Structures are given as C-alpha cells and as structure tokens.
C-alpha cells in the first residue's frame, strides 16, 4: 500500500474502519492490568519508565527558573537513575530548556499549534510550530482541531497535521488526539489512523488539560492502531499516554500493555513515552524503596 | 414466626476516612479472654500500613493548617459522639477484656473525658510550650511548637481502648496525623472507634486504625521514611522494641519507648518540634507577621 496523499482518500479509509469492541477492549486492558511485576523485573521496569518520561510543565506560571530546575532533574533525577526522555514545555520556554539540556541527550519537546484547545487560525498554529523549532525544540506536540474532527471535517484535520508536520521539519511530531474530548473509542481509532496517515511520528492521548486524560483502554486501542498501521504500511509510529498517570503501579501497567501488544520494538523511549510530571517522583520513591528496603517519602524527592 | 437472624458487624480497618478490608484479604478470629468467639477482624499487612501512611501524609498539612480552635471543636465532637455510644463501647470493652460492665463503662467515660481534655489543649499548648525569648540583640525571638507530621502509634495491648485514645489524642491535638495499630488480641473497641471519628468532622486520614500483628506490621512503620515519630507503647517484646528503635533511628524518627509515662503536656511535647525564629526588631510589623 502506497503512502496516502489526498485528504479525501485518508478520510474515506478512516471512515471505513471497523467499530471498536468496547467491552472486549476494556476487559483486555483490565486483564493486562492484573500482571504482577516484582523484584528485579520491577527495578528494570522502573528505570525503563523513568527513561520514557517527557517531564512536563505546562502552566501559565512557568518561569525560566522553574524550567531550568526541571531540566536539571530530567538529566539527573536521583543518584544513578537514568535521565528522562525529554522535557516538555510551552514554546516560550523552549529556548531556556534547550540551553539547560544542551549536550545532555535529553530532548526538548514543545507543545504547539495553539495548545491546548487548538482553536486558533492555521497560520498562527504553523507560526507557533516554527517558532518552537527555531528556538531549539527536538519534538513538537501538536493538538488536532477536535472541533473540525467532531464536525466530520476529517480532511481539514488531515491537512492541518500534514502542514504542521512540514512546518516541524526535522523535529518529531507527536499528535495529541485529546481522547477525552473525542469521547468514543470509535473516534479514537479514527483519529489515530488519520494522524498516522497524515505523517505523525507519535500519537498522544491527551493534553492533561481536560477532565478525562489517558486511560489504559484508550492507550491500548492506540497501541493496536500503531501495530496494525505498521503491518499495513511498514512505518512505525510511537505512542504517548499523557495526563493522570501518577503512580509506579500505573506506569508498569502501561509497560505491560506495550510489551503484550507491541513487543520489544516499542519498548524504548524512541517509541513509547509517558507525558507526566508527578509520576517521576513516585518512580524515584519506589526506586529508593528497592535500594534501601524501606518505604520512602516525599521528603526524599524534590518539590517541583 | 421464625427467629430473627442477628446482623453481625464486619470489623474493618479505618484508613483515609474509609473502612476497607485488608488488601491482603486476610482476617483473624478475635475471642474474649475465656475463649468465646467475638468476631473476625481484618489482619492488616505491610501494604495496609503503607496505604495508611500515605493517607495520613495527605491529611497532615491540611489538619495542621486548621485553626487550633477548630481542632479542639472536632475533638470535642468526637467526645460527644462517643458519649452517645458509651453503652456499646462498654459492652465491647467488657467482652474484650473480661471487665465488669460498670468498670468498662467507667473506662469508656474516662476516654471521653480524655478527648475533652485534649480538645481544651489544642489552642493552649503552643502558648505553654512556646514563647518569646529574651535575647541580647535587636531581635524578636520566638519559639513555637510545630507538629512532627505523621506519627505511628503501636497502641497498648492490655488497655485496648483508653490506652489507645490516650496515645492518639495528644498526637492529633498537636496537628499530627496518626497511623494506629490497635491491640492485637483486643482490637474491636478500637475498630469501632473509627466509626465515632468518621462522624466527628475529623477529616479522613487524620486517624487511621489498623488491626494486626505487631511483629509483622511494626517494622515497616518503624523503617518508613515518611513516618516522623513512633510510639512503641504496645510493644511487649523488649528485643523487638530495641529493633524497632534502631530501625526508627535510620530514618530519624522521634521514638516514645514502651512504659514511658508522662502528663498530657509531656505527651503533646513528644509529638512536636520547636521552631525558633529570629526576627529583626522593628521589621516584624512590616513583614505582616507571615513568618
């Protein structure tokens, strides 16, 4: 199957996707969530999860100082713990983050395209993207126009993603579907495929700014989509659940899903990420527990 | 007419304002001193203790941030609730210890009075323990007692109700939150006390009640880095007490040794630490007193 160029073609393909078996999907996710990961495997899972975090701060109150301290934490979270995958900030903070992370191997990710609502004219969204890339972003987290998607204008969503992909240039493009606003599993599946056809390097669940963020079933559904997409086109796309993942237990459930659904090919921060902030501290506390043998507490990790 | 079946109570833990069973699914039979079966109680595990500490930590800052007056009102409310159910507690206590009913009622009444006593202390102990210190320089110098944070209480084994109330009341009166491991053999009055606290406007997580084995659960509380103080009152094995104290030292806890006695002020002092503030004289008003 060749690459898709026309929006109408992509829209037609996406509309023809079969519906999601919601009960089966939730049962599968719940089943995978019961796996017990202990001892050495848990230690490995914790370090892997840390290395997959896009350490995120997306507040109006973000200051250069806060971004710098977050960057320092991303590079060296605690003792011999691995670095996180990236630091994720607003475009205005990209330059600060890029300077703080230079040479560390930790990537700079920037939300763009009128995050979080995306309700901004396309030319501004593209300018937003270009500015972030110019300032040093290695990765762009764009939001789709949920309004257009829900109104059925799949072509417009497709073309916008394509345009942002072009504007992002070398930077890897993560496409935020905002699954909490798409509401149904069927729409999550459609949006996933639409984004992948349009050139997404990653599909990401949520902005973290609405009531419903990443859930295990939704992320599992997106994992199935990237698996099937690779089988069909040969191109591999990453997955990033974001928002609401706060505990080590949750993170390990996601890793189990990756392993069971996608396998080793996706089990690295090249292809799987967690969009999170407080998750890192919980992972570090669990890590300390494994090292010291006793429970740790919030006094032993940084206050972000 | 057929005889009515009695509805028996399931004695559960009290953690974070809720009444869960043990996450381990375990329970153990509780008997009276003469061997009659009273009920099954949840057998708390290491993870229940961990969850209780997490709940206590979450509740601590808001609880310490309440006004002393309100903390007193809530403790007084707990005394009111207990007064209304004194009969039930006297019965449970008599069953648990084999005490005469009127003696058990007397013990429950003492516990009620103790709650009222500490309700009165909440807005006074800081003035008694703290104060303005005279210093030879242009400074205001103040000392005030502040809560330690989360306190683990291993409640007395033989005095399952009054002893437990006496151990936890000063800790929460001073703004701490507590994780209490009740008497192992006589946990029922303590577990019912959770119902009193739950209806006293006491925020969930301020008091967490566990029932279980001291030797199993206490080491995890003693070594837990997020516990700031531990009361070893209920540890009868001297070797275990020494072990727990050593584990507690590893994470810098305040330890109350078994058998230690003291008046209520000493108990309030036990679960507080002093903060002393040096403030340049003449600037206190400008700073708005927000230190």
TrEMBL record, chain A:
<dbReference type="InterPro" id="IPR013785">
    <property type="entry name" value="Aldolase_TIM"/>
</dbReference>
<dbReference type="GO" id="GO:0005737">
    <property type="term" value="C:cytoplasm"/>
</dbReference>
<dbReference type="InterPro" id="IPR011343">
    <property type="entry name" value="DeoC"/>
</dbReference>
<protein>
    <recommendedName>
        <fullName>Deoxyribose-phosphate aldolase</fullName>
        <ecNumber>4.1.2.4</ecNumber>
    </recommendedName>
</protein>
<keyword id="KW-0704">Schiff base</keyword>
<dbReference type="GO" id="GO:0009264">
    <property type="term" value="P:deoxyribonucleotide catabolic process"/>
</dbReference>
<keyword id="KW-0456">Lyase</keyword>
<comment type="similarity">
    <text>Belongs to the DeoC/FbaB aldolase family. DeoC type 2 subfamily.</text>
</comment>
<dbReference type="InterPro" id="IPR002915">
    <property type="entry name" value="DeoC/FbaB/LacD_aldolase"/>
</dbReference>
<comment type="pathway">
    <text>Carbohydrate degradation; 2-deoxy-D-ribose 1-phosphate degradation; D-glyceraldehyde 3-phosphate and acetaldehyde from 2-deoxy-alpha-D-ribose 1-phosphate: step 2/2.</text>
</comment>
<dbReference type="Pfam" id="PF01791">
    <property type="entry name" value="DeoC"/>
</dbReference>
<dbReference type="GO" id="GO:0016052">
    <property type="term" value="P:carbohydrate catabolic process"/>
</dbReference>
<dbReference type="GO" id="GO:0004139">
    <property type="term" value="F:deoxyribose-phosphate aldolase activity"/>
</dbReference>
UniProtKB/TrEMBL annotation, chain B:
<dbReference type="InterPro" id="IPR016162">
    <property type="entry name" value="Ald_DH_N"/>
</dbReference>
<dbReference type="InterPro" id="IPR016161">
    <property type="entry name" value="Ald_DH/histidinol_DH"/>
</dbReference>
<dbReference type="GO" id="GO:0016491">
    <property type="term" value="F:oxidoreductase activity"/>
</dbReference>
<feature type="domain" description="Aldehyde dehydrogenase">
    <location>
        <begin position="22"/>
        <end position="238"/>
    </location>
</feature>
<dbReference type="InterPro" id="IPR015590">
    <property type="entry name" value="Aldehyde_DH_dom"/>
</dbReference>
<keyword id="KW-0560">Oxidoreductase</keyword>
<protein>
    <submittedName>
        <fullName>Aldehyde dehydrogenase</fullName>
    </submittedName>
</protein>
<dbReference type="Pfam" id="PF00171">
    <property type="entry name" value="Aldedh"/>
</dbReference>
């Amino acid at each position: 199957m060749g690459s898709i160029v026309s929006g109408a073609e992509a829209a037609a393909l996406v509309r023809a996707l079969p519906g999601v078996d919601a009960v089966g999907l939730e049962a599968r996710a719940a089943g995978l969530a019961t796996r017990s990961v202990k001892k050495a495997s848990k230690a490995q899972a914790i370090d892997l999860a840390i290395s997959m975090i896009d350490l995120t701060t997306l507040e109006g109150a973000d200051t250069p100082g806060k971004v710098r301290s977050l960057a320092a934490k991303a590079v060296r979270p605690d003792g011999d713990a691995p670095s996180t995958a990236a630091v994720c900030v607003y475009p205005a903070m990209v330059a600060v983050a890029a300077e703080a992370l230079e040479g560390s191997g930790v990537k700079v990710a920037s939300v763009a395209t009128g995050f979080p609502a995306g309700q901004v004219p396309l030319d501004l969204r593209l300018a937003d993207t270009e500015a972030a890339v110019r300032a040093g972003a290695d990765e762009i987290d764009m939001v789709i126009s949920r309004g257009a998607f829900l109104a059925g204008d799949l072509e417009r969503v497709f073309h916008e993603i394509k345009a942002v992909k072009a504007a992002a240039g070398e930077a890897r493009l993560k496409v935020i579907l905002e699954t909490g606003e798409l509401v149904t599993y069927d729409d999550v599946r459609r949006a996933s495929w639409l984004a992948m056809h349009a050139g997404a390097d990653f599909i990401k669940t949520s902005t973290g700014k609405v009531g419903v963020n990443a859930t295990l079933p939704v992320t599992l559904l997106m994992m199935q989509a990237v698996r099937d997409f690779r089988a069909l086109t040969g191109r591999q796309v990453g997955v990033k659940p974001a928002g609401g993942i706060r505990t080590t237990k949750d993170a390990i459930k996601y890793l189990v899903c990756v392993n069971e659904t996608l396998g080793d090919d996706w089990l690295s921060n090249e292809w799987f990420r967690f969009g999170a902030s407080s998750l890192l501290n919980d992972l570090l506390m669990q890590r300390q527990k494994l090292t010291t043998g006793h429970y740790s507490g919030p006094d032993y990790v940084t206050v972000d | 007419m057929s005889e009515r079946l009695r509805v028996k109570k399931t004695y559960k833990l009290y953690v974070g304002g809720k009444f869960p069973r043990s996450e381990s699914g375990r329970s153990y039979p509780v008997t009276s001193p003469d061997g009659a079966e009273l009920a099954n109680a949840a057998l708390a595990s290491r993870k229940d203790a961990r969850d209780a500490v997490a709940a206590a930590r979450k509740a601590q800052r808001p609880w310490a941030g309440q006004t002393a007056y309100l903390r007193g009102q809530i403790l007084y409310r707990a005394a009111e609730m207990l007064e209304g159910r004194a009969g039930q507690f006297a019965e449970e206590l008599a069953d648990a210890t084999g005490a005469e009913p009127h003696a058990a009622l007397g013990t429950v009444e003492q516990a009620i009075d103790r709650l009222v006593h500490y309700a009165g202390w909440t807005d006074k102990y800081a003035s008694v323990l703290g104060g303005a210190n005279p210093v030879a320089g242009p400074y205001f110098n103040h000392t005030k007692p502040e809560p330690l944070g989360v306190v683990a209480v291993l409640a007395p084994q033989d005095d399952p109700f009054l002893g437990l109330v006496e151990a936890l009341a000063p800790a929460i009166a001073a703004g701490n939150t507590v994780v209490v491991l009740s008497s192992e053999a006589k946990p029922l009055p303590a577990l019912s006390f959770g119902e009193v606290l739950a209806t006293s406007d006491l925020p969930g997580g301020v008091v967490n009640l566990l029932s279980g084995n001291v030797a199993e659960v206490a080491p995890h509380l003693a070594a837990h880095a997020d516990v700031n103080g531990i009361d070893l009152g209920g540890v009868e094995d001297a070797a275990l007490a020494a072990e727990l104290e050593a584990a507690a030292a590893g994470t810098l806890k305040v330890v109350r040794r078994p058998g230690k006695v003291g008046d209520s002020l000493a108990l309030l002092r036990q679960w507080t630490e002093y903060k002393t503030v040096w403030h340049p004289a003449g600037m206190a008003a400008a700073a708005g007193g927000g230190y």
